[in-house]
Each structure stands twice: as C-alpha cells, then as structure tokens.
UniProtKB/TrEMBL annotation:
Domain Guanylate cyclase: 475-632
Chief site of localization: membrane
Highest taxon listed in the record's lineage: Eukaryota
One Pfam family linked to the record: Ion_trans
SUPFAM superfamilies, per database record: Nucleotide cyclase
Name of the protein this chain belongs to: Guanylate cyclase domain-containing protein
Species classification: Eukaryota, Sar, Alveolata, Ciliophora, Postciliodesmatophora
InterPro entries from the UniProt entry: A/G_cyclase (IPR001054), Ion_trans_dom (IPR005821), Nucleotide_cyclase (IPR029787), Volt_channel_dom_sf (IPR027359)
Alphabetic keyword roster: Membrane, Transmembrane, Transmembrane helix
Any GO molecular function: monoatomic ion channel activity
GO cellular component term, pick one: membrane
Length: 800
C-alpha cells in the first residue's frame, strides 16, 4: 500500500509530459528559481507504470480497498459468524496483495518514493493487515483452535495464555492499522486540490485569470506539516494504551474467582459434584454463558446449546486454575468492541484530516499563500513585464476563497471587519512592494526594455542590462513641443509641470490607441506602435507583412488617429488652455498657443538597451527611428503640424488615406531613400474648450484592450474609428474638395518639372487657404531656382 506525498510530490504524470526540476535549486550565481531545471528521460515501461499508478481508476480502486482494510475486521466480528470468516480472510489476503504490489511498483518506478518517509509508513500499514488474517496471525502468536477440544488441561491452559497474549499484541498492531488512514488523508487532500484546480480553471475560463502554480516552498512546508501530524497522531494512538493497567496485567473477573472456589471445594470434597453442577447452571442463562469445562482428571463438560468450535478465539474467555479450565462465550463483548473500534477509526480519521487542515491553515494563510502570491507576481513580471503596469492583477487565491465561502461566512467576515481594525502584515507589504517595483520597472524601461526585465528576473547571478538586441517592425512616431526653449526660460521651475501635463495627454491618448511611449527627451516624445513578430514576413524596406496579418490593417490608422486626437485635446483641455493666458508666455510670444509637431514613419529597428553598466536606456536604434524625428523637423519647413511617409500611408484604411494629402516627394542620403510625404490637414477653429477629464489608468487600459480586441476579431474596422469620431470630423470639415483638387493639380505640375505652371496653380490654392504651409514651402523652394526645374529633376526633392 502506498501513501503518496499529499501535495503531489510523487505525482510524476505531468512530469512525463513536461520535465521539471526534481529538487529545490540552490539559488546563487548563475542559477534562478525559473531556470534551475533538470531534463531527464524515463524508459517507456517506467512511464507507463507511473501513469498506471497515478491513474484515477487505480486511485479509486485502492481507496475502496483501503476502506475495506480499515473496517473489514470490525464488520466481520460484529455482523458475521465464524463460519463466514474464511471469505473475509481471503479478501484481506487480496487487499494485502494489492497494497504490496502497489508499494513494490512505487518503490521500483518512483525514485522519490524509495526509502522515503511514506515508504516506511506504507510498509507498516501493509504489515498491520496481517492481524486481520487469522490464517497467518494465529500461528504467529501460537493459538491452536483445536486445543479446546482436547482433554489435556495443560494444552487448553496454554491456549488461553496464547489467546490473551495474542489479544494484547493484536490490540497494539490494530492501532498501527490506523496508519492506513493516512491514505484517506492524502486522497482527501488530493481531491481538495483537484476541486480547487477545477474551480480555478472555471474562473480562469470566465475571467481570464492567470492560474498560479504551487510553489516549492508551499509544497515542502505542507509536506512537512502533514508528516508531523501523521507522526503525532500515531504516537498518541500507540502510547496511550501503554498507560492502561490491562496492558501489563490481566484483570480477574467473577469467572476466575468462581472457578477457583469450585476447585477448592473439589479438593475438600472430591466426590461431591453439587457445586460443579451449580456452577454450570449459574451461567446457563447468562449473557456470557459457560461453554466448556475441563478437569485435570480428564473429565470435561460441553455446552449443548453452544458449539465451542463455532466461536472465534477473540470471542472466548479462558478462566483456569491449577486443576481446571473453563471457556466462556463473550461474543457480546467482542461485538461491542468491534463496533467501538469502527467508531474509533472514524473518529481518528476525522481528527487526522482536521488536524492536517488546521495545522496547515495558519501556515497557508500567513506564509505559504503570501509567498506563492509573491512568486506569482515575480513570475508575472518575468513573463510579461508590461502587463503588471497595464492592469490590476486579479488574485486567484482571493477569488477562489471568496467564491467558496458561504453566506454566513461572508456575513461573519463583514461583522469582524466592522469590529476590528484592518491589520496589514509584513507579507502583504512585501507583496505590494513587488507590484510597485514591477510597475516602476515597466514605467522606467517601457516596451523596449521588457526583454531586459524578463531575462534578468528569470536568470540568476549578476544583473546584466546589456543583453543582445532584437529586430522588430513598428510605426515610429515623434512629437515635439514647439517653442519649448522660450517656454522653459519663462516658466522656469514650472516647466516640469508644463511638460508633464502635456505628457499626460500624449501618453494616455497613444496608449488608448495601442501605442507605447518610449523616450521623453525634454520637449520631445518617441512613440512606438509595434507589430507582433508573427505579423512580419521580411524585414525589408518597406516591410513585407504576412497575408494573414491583422495589425497591418489597423495599426497605421491608430497611429494617425493618436496624433490627431492629441492635437484636438491640446486645443480643448482646460489644463493646457490656461497657458494661453500666461502673462509671461504672452509677453514673450504674443498669441501663444501650445503646439506640437508630429512625424510618422514605418520601418524596422533594433530593440534593446543602450548605455553601460552605469546607466542604460531601453530604446530603438535604426535610421527609421531617426526618420520619424526628421519628419517632425520637416513639419516646420512645410508649416504643418504632422508629416507621414508613404510607408505609413500605404497601410492606412480607405478613410485614413482620404484624410491625408500628398505634400511632396523627397530623397535622403544622396537619393538612396525616396519617400512620398503626406500630411493630415487640421483646423481647430471649430473646437470648443472642454471639461477636465482625468481618466484613470485602469479605465484607459480597459478601453485599449476593448478596442484592440474588436479590431483583431474583425468586429470593428479601423476606418470606423475615424468616422465615429466627431472631433476628427470637425477638424476636417473646413477643408473643401476644391482645395484638395487644386493642390493635387499644382503638385502634379511641380513634380513633372513644369514649375511656372505650378506657381500659378499654387497661388490658386492659396486663394482657398492663404496660409497653406506646403504650398508656401514649395513656392519658396521653386523660387530658389527662379521657378525653373533642374535639368536632372525627376520629381524628387533632395534633402541633405
């Protein structure tokens, strides 16, 4: 019989599927809680044997056999006669065989079980079945049931002595039999964990909750407590009978004294049988009748109503003197004792399970569960460093505990909470600290530093921030605060508040539309809309996406929408609008308004750490990132707030493209890189000041997840994001179709090299909007060549 470790220490079914470490790692340099694993392969026969041992069918079958072994002997004695004993003995032999086979197989195929605490416990429990089998037990203690039919008084006396000695030994060993209750305790715990896991799985399916795995500390501590409970209960059960007088000295009853009186009378009056007859008649109608008497002279008496051979040895009481011996039927006592033993078994079972639960309860609440929560938080940070900063972590233990409580438990908890002051224990402080550290890491490193955080948490030893970079594809956005130098000189210390108020708008808006802020460089912000790795087919220029790519259908629109929304908010947010009335800023810059310049470009970059062991920044390196910065600088030349390249324009939806205007075609790096530049025209004259909205971070994250989910599932088209925004429509409605048509005609002449014709057409454009920046910029560029295109003009304006 095997009593496995309560917390699945011996359950290797899962290990056969996914090898895990089999011992607690030594945490030190070069080792980690998450990386200290041992890869091993088991032979096919060993794997099959372990699967059989851990199967639910065998578990249920052995549970039934365990209950039989616990109660069979008591049921046999209290409910059945001796003639039916052989059937019970045969079943007990089968149970002994089943337990032995299971124990041997576990010893052979489960390395952790071999010579362990539970192996010895199983061995003792298995051997304790032997007293339940009279075929084996009676020869051991020297009981021979045929002695009672002999005329030899000495043999009968020896049988009585052996019976009493065997009864004492069986009483102690049958106490050891209760070791089998450990299997029930183990199975109860296993079932409880299975129910808990099912509950967790259900909760996880409904609420998408991360399911924490049991920690090594929790498994080890629970195992130690369970072992000590087992030892304590068994020591108490074994030692308590040793303090009974009956264990060391056999008490004499009226049967013994009565028989001695008869014997003494027979010595004085050897030929007188009156007392002998009276003695036999006295116990005839007794609840414990006399069934047999033998004398030294060879004479004997047998009861006619009760066959002595129909009684078990435990149902006989031997009373003897020097000259005679009597046997009494004590079945009434044996049945009562068997019934009490069954009750004792049930009681001990309850005590054992309750002790295991109660002893581990405080350890779970104050040590194991808090530690597992902390480990869960660390693992969450290691697996996805950004997630802990994105959302409120749902504590799975609290969910399960709250769901399992009854109405009265919840009511009592509320009463206790109202009457007692809340106590925050050190473990809770540590847990909150882990979360805060994780949030700070995520805020400090950003999306580009997620791999740095993850790799350093998963890997032990010294911190190594300078890890190898990773190639990614993304839409890179660069936004710059205009006139920042002047604002800094006037606002002085207040410039930090000024920048942070603008950063609040930029970061929250970008985050809502699936972007991530990377750098805060004083007056500028680098924003990244990153594509998943499985979306990219080739890191070329331009990027080649997979045909099944989902993000390419909406990420460009979200990037453009983010910058348009930022421009709207800085023109209606009351916190930002207050700077229009700042006396210092107005004095230095009459008519001052907070303005941004934006650049958008799509390409690849290397994501990683930049710096040294003294200071690092997690960012992106490539000329595509620099291109977004260059575009922001060009917005000043073209007199517009936003510029994007054709790389971004090509992935926009139909409505997104409709909101953009081709501004110019330029070349960089001596003509190597050629880009079409587009802008999205805006007019904020119709935007009215709004009310202050301080959206919580959690609310923003929920909106982000909801929007991304709908776009990924195809429930929402990215063009609907544009069409559904009243603010975007309001900043676009003042631009007429005639204006765009006039500009397209002028731009076409300009690109074709007919600059004089283009000049007249651009002047027509200025009639629609006299301050159109791109028209004025191109006119100024053509004027440098006296409105005559260069001989090598190919419709591409070189930028150096």
């Amino acid at each position: 019989m095997e009593i496995s470790k309560p917390l699945d220490v011996f359950n290797t079914t899962e290990n056969n599927k996914r090898p895990e470490n089999k011992s607690l790692p030594i945490i030190g340099k070069g080792t980690s809680l998450f990386s200290a694993t041992q890869e091993f392969k088991q032979p096919a026969i060993s794997t099959k044997a372990i699967r059989i041992l851990d199967s639910n069918i065998l578990l249920v079958f052995m549970l039934i056999v365990t209950f039989y072994a616990l109660f069979s002997d008591d049921i046999r004695i209290s409910q059945f006669s001796k003639s039916q004993d052989d059937g019970f003995f045969a079943l007990s032999c089968c149970a002994l065989s089943f337990f032995s086979i299971e124990m041997i197989m576990s010893f052979i195929f489960k390395g952790e079980y071999r010579w362990s605490f539970y192996y010895w416990l199983d061995l003792i429990a298995t051997l304790s079945i032997i007293p339940d089998i009279d075929w084996a037990w009676n020869p051991i203690v020297g009981i021979n049931s045929s002695s009672t039919s002999s005329s030899n008084v000495n043999q009968i006396q020896n049988a009585g002595k052996s019976s009493r000695a065997g009864a004492r030994a069986a009483r102690v060993i049958r106490i050891v039999r209760l070791v089998r209750l450990m299997r029930i305790a183990k199975l109860y715990k296993h079932a409880k964990r299975a129910v808990k896991t099912d509950s967790v799985d259900q909760i996880a399916d409904d609420d998408t909750v991360y399911i924490p795995k049991e920690s090594r500390v929790g498994r080890k501590l629970s195992d130690i407590i369970t072992k000590r409970v087992i030892i304590l209960v068994m020591v108490v059960l074994i030692l308590i009978p040793l303090f009974d007088l009956d264990f060391f000295k056999t008490q004499k009853y009226s049967w013994d004294f009565g028989l001695q009186v008869v014997d003494d009378y027979d010595e004085v009056f050897p030929n007188e049988n009156t007392v002998k007859v009276y003695y036999r008649d006295y116990y005839k109608n007794s609840s414990r009748p006399l069934v047999y008497i033998a004398y030294l002279d060879g004479s004997e008496w047998l009861s006619e109503s009760i066959d002595i051979n129909s009684l078990r040895e435990i149902e006989k009481y031997y009373s003897h003197t020097n000259n005679s011996i009597a046997v009494y039927d004590i079945r009434i006592d044996s049945k009562l004792e068997a019934q009490l033993n069954a009750c004792k078994t049930i009681f001990v079972c309850i005590v054992l399970v309750a002790a295991a639960i109660f002893f581990t309860n405080d350890a779970n609440n104050f040590a194991i569960i808090p530690i597992e929560k902390m480990i869960n938080k660390v693992k969450a940070i290691a697996n996805n460093p950004l997630k802990i900063a994105e959302e409120k972590v749902i504590d799975i233990y609290d969910v399960i505990e709250e769901a399992s409580k009854s109405y009265w438990q919840k009511l009592c908890k509320k009463c206790k909470q109202s009457s007692k002051k809340h106590i925050e224990y050190e473990t809770k402080v540590l847990e909150n600290t882990f979360v805060k550290i994780g949030v700070l890491l995520a805020l400090g490193f950003g999306e580009a530093g997620a791999s740095i955080i993850s790799s350093n948490i998963k890997t032990g030893g010294d911190v190594d921030p300078l890890i190898k970079g990773k190639k990614i594809a993304a839409v890179f956005g660069f936004c710059d605060i205009r006139n920042f130098t002047d604002a800094t000189e006037e606002l002085q210390e207040g410039v930090m508040l000024f920048v942070n108020e603008l950063a609040r708008i930029v970061h929250s808006t970008v985050d809502h539309y699936s972007g991530a802020a990377n750098k805060n460089i004083g007056d500028a912000f680098l924003i990244v809309w990153r594509f998943d790795d499985n979306e990219i087919q080739e890191f070329s220029d331009p990027i080649i996406f997979n045909q099944e790519s989902k993000q390419v259908k909406y990420l460009g629109d979200l990037a453009l929408m983010s910058f348009l929304k930022i421009m709207v908010k800085i023109n209606k947010d009351p916190v930002v609008l207050k700077y229009r009335s700042n006396t210092k800023l107005i004095k230095r810059m009459p008519g001052y308004q907070v303005k941004f310049g934006f650049g958008l470009h799509l390409g690849w970059a290397i994501e990683g750490a930049i710096g040294s062991n003294f200071k690092i920044d997690a960012s992106y390196l490539s000329h595509h990132v620099n291109m977004s910065s260059n575009l922001e600088g060009l917005t000043k030349n073209y007199g517009i707030p936003i510029l994007l390249t054709d790389r971004v324009y090509d992935i926009l939806s139909f409505l997104g493209k409709k909101y953009c205007r081709h501004v110019d075609t330029v070349s960089l790096k001596g003509g190597k890189d050629v880009y079409k530049l587009f802008t999205s025209d805006v007019d904020f004259s119709g935007i009215m000041p709004g009310k202050f909205k301080d959206n919580s971070k959690e609310r923003t994250k929920n909106k982000r997840r909801a929007l991304k989910f709908r776009l990924d599932q195809g429930v929402l088209e990215s063009s609907e994001v544009f069409s559904g925004s009243k603010e975007i429509n309001s900043i676009k409605e003042l631009f007429s179709e005639e204006f765009f048509e006039a500009y397209d005609n002028a731009l076409r002449k300009y690109l074709d090299g007919r600059w004089k014709d283009a000049l007249f057409l651009f002047k027509d454009v200025l009639k629609y909007r006299e301050n159109d920046g791109p028209s004025n910029s191109i006119i100024a560029y053509m004027e440098e060549s006296n409105f005559k295109a260069p001989k090598d003009w190919k419709g591409i304006r070189p930028l150096y």
